[in-house]
Amino acid sequence: MISQAENVTLTQVGAGTPMGELMRRYWMPALLSWELAEPDGEPVRVKLLGEELVAFRDTDGRIGLLDEFCPHRLVSLWLGRNEDCGLRCVYHGWKFDVDGQCVDMMNEPEDSDFPSKMTTTSYPTIELGGVIWAYMGPKEHMPPPPKFEWAAVPATHRHVTKNIQECNWLQALEGGIDSAHATILHRTLRVDTPHAGLRVDSPHVQGKPPELEVDITDYGYRYAGIRSLGDEGNHVRAYHFVMPFHQIRASQRGYRGQAGPVGFLASGHMWVPMDDHNVMVWNWDLSYDEPIEEQERVDMDRGYGRGPEHMLTDFRTRVNRDNNWMINRSVQKTETFSGIDGVNAQDVAVQESMGHIVDRSRENLSRTDMAIIYARRQLLQAARSVAEGGTPPGVGDNYYMLRPSQAILPVGVDWRDALWDDLYPDGSQSRNGTK
Ligand code: FES
Ligand SMILES: [Fe+2]
Question: Which domain holds residue 97?
Fold first, then answer.
């Protein structure tokens, strides 16, 4: 439980709010590269941290991310003409380059110096890993480009998608780092059900609820869900939370030492606030060795409930609040625990069902909510530190090689000892000094 005031701090992301200012200190995913496929192509609306923006790729391939509304009389530049290295407003022809500089005004005399004095808000961007990232903070604090492993590998080895959830960003983040729900919400009730979910006979569904262990780090924290399998040992899933909204986790298929299909050894999310009531959930998968085949991409999207048949235009899911997430009560009785089709849809349903911004002062947290408690604490601390002129954690470039891990370990073996080299294959974190 946190206070109502803390809840407000954590959930509001507009300019000038503590959390909004914290977020503005990081590079944030704004668009998939393919949304701006070609020079002089269609502009795209982007909503980030409560700001309405428009993105375009200019004639030279450079990306502009501008205030959506023309500074003349506030017409949407999304209607604009993307031509000759600039986006031109269709109302009176003011034209802006990718840096937000006005380069022409069709309603002004040719010798006017008004255009050179006119600028509009523009944010720097960088293209990495099939994603266009934006930096919306003070220029003097711009961090180095994000260096996540999934964003550095060839396109053949990663799979990146995004979908909108109609709830505050923190609800979605908390759903993602709450590993305890996975074996409950997502379980199937029969091994032969055609519906997607965690098989009811899988070891971690069969095991007891997990014990969570969390270690604070300089990038956020690492944490493990540990489920006792009795004499067989402990099933351990080890994750990373990277400030302010990244999760790196083992995929269901990524078992250490287990024979079977390779690939998809790491997955993760980024929960990027569009505004206080909507979040863009970014989803990535990374294969360390084999390329990810086209069919695997389709199967994976379908399994998560993000296949083409699950999506509306504009990255909204067909299953949503308006149709009660298409819950099927007879499937709920006999096939799957939730009666909602698709793992992603199940997450969306529970998180949206809380309302746009849940009142966390009314919660009753239990032991398995530990990772959530740590994330809130860290976010509040970081927001406070930025408000006081400090530097937030995780803006450096030392988290390039963070990997998740998953294993069944003998009773009594500390997961840190057993999995350390998996978690930090480049040796970027020292094992000394941790518990
Ligand atoms: S409103 Fe854009 S040029 Fe007038
Ligand atoms: Fe989930």
Answer: 28-134
